[in-house]
GntR family transcriptional regulator (Ruegeria aquimaris), 444 residues
Amino acid sequence: MAKFQTVDIGRSASAASIIFAALRRAIVEGDLADGEPLRQDEIARSFNTSRIPVREALTMLEQQGLVKTERYKGAVVAGLSMAEATEIFDFRALVEAEVMRRAVPKMTAEVLDTARACLERFAAASDPMHYGDLNREFHETLYRASALPYHLGVIENAMDRIDRYLRAQLVLSDGMERARREHLAILDACAKGEAERAAALTAEHILGARDSLAEHMGSVSR
Amino acid sequence: MAKFQTVDIGRSASAASIIFAALRRAIVEGDLADGEPLRQDEIARSFNTSRIPVREALTMLEQQGLVKTERYKGAVVAGLSMAEATEIFDFRALVEAEVMRRAVPKMTAEVLDTARACLERFAAASDPMHYGDLNREFHETLYRASALPYHLGVIENAMDRIDRYLRAQLVLSDGMERARREHLAILDACAKGEAERAAALTAEHILGARDSLAEHMGSVSR
DNA sequence: GTATCGGATATTGGATCCAATATTCAATAT
DNA sequence: ATATTGAATATTGGATCCAATATCCGATAC
């Protein structure tokens, strides 16, 4: 029997995955602008490591489509054209609606409470840049009930690619107010066990964001 | 004006991406068994490089979910549980049906001819292990007409994860014959411009393969 | 005979060093 | 004045070397 609590320091994250997580977050939140070059040397210095783990992190980001690398030129934050962004919204609408459809029958009271708490924090949030996190948390809480890990992973990746634009759009005009209203409607459908309605509302919610983004920004990038 | 043909040797693939492509192919085709350890040193020797580009290739594979890495233990080919495989089939059915629905109205005669040629090669193929390639080529040819690159990428990734099991199942019993029949039906719907029917047939085609796999193999791995 | 401990070996993660090439900018020819 | 050439610099990709740790196997205690 174990008499001491083990701490798994051996399983602690590698330098590369720490750097990856930090860069990913910076890109997803929009702190790094589209096209911004990511210098290996500079990043290595800021993390007090060599360039090796930095390169590993950059290859991970490239696999996720968050950066583009060119030989002898380096990595830059990968921006999306309007067509690409639109396609990703369409994809999300398709997959998230289906996940929602399958999640509703499995939602426990606890899941619904957690989601409700998310919305309350969303309404009370003072920092606009925090909306994005709460938005994701709300949706993920509901989706997780589906017990479809592969779907969740794919959704997360798609979300990463467009989150910056979504966040920028959320603070504009009536973005916040509409999101709040639509979230309430989705949660209501979930609470009543109406899977089809929840799925339809989810798709509308995402496609509405797509159209709103297309209006506000003529072209997102390059 | 350019008087000489330029060859872009500078843009030639890096060692890491060559190794990645080779390992990916080996895993997807099932030449490397589930759980098989991938030793950096060994791979490096067989490609006449150092371990650095090998590690880069392994991180790419890990991002794709094709290998699992553990610190100080190394990378192994990532097998799928029955539940995971089933989920990926469901995902494919959802996404590929939608892509097909949107592709049909855009299919030119050339696309249809290319797909038809695929099927003929499929029927005439002598090497059973070549079926898998032709199967993918057939579907991809049709999907590409949709002009939805993000969707295609996601589908490709999902396909990579289950292709081994699919190939193994294809050569069993009536797998080949049924695939041939279903492909013809799909192509027929496409040729007649019946998008909804093509989409429905595509979903059935994939879910049928899912069920067939579930029958033939009690558990896929681990 | 069996279980536990300790060192040898194997293997990975990271640091440092070297090679290759893109970019920049000054010098020069037209 | 402008376009071209060539050297200096910056930056990446890969090789070699070092540190950390998991695994294996023999020695030892009971």
Remarks:
- The mean pLDDT of chain B is 89.
- Chain B has nine helices and three strands.
- Chain B touches chain A through 27 residues (CB under 8 Å).
- Residues 10, 39-41, 51, 55, 69, 71-74 of chain B lie near DNA strand C (CB under 10 Å from a C1').
